[in-house]
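User: Predict the structure for this protein chain, please.
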Amino acid sequence: MNFSLQRLFLLVTTVAVFLWLYLGFHRVLTRVEYGESRPSVPWLPAAAKNVSYYKSYAFTAYEFEIPEDDFVKWSGEKLTTINRPVRVPRYCLIRMPLPDLMPNPTLRQEREQIRTLATRETLVSQGLAYDHHRDSGGGTIVAYDRQRGKGYFWHAPY
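Assistant: Here is the predicted structure, written as structure tokens:
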């Protein structure tokens, strides 16, 4: 009888540990933080103002107003001067669903979808950037737009 109690205890403990690990991983992999036009956030430099962001395991993007010198210090990447425009996915990429185009969309519906797509990313033409894409589609883009005085960050692990 003592032996079967030990096996039962081991089984219950093993199930509890696996359940705890599963719930922990699930929480980490599905957690989403979202904010728009926040005065500041603790994970960006104090100079960063008017912060909008979307943070999750699969997709992270934020944009914020910041002086160029502070952005360069914060980035930690080897930024280069932009020679050709850099497209940066914005924080609202996932939160903005595309309008549903039925089999025969009207011109107005098509234009609405084009406008929605255009706001899901920004084009940085003058400034600094670091752009690294993986073959899997993930990567990191860090860019500073001198015209707007804004910093942009995008990262996807895969």
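The radius of gyration is 22 Å.
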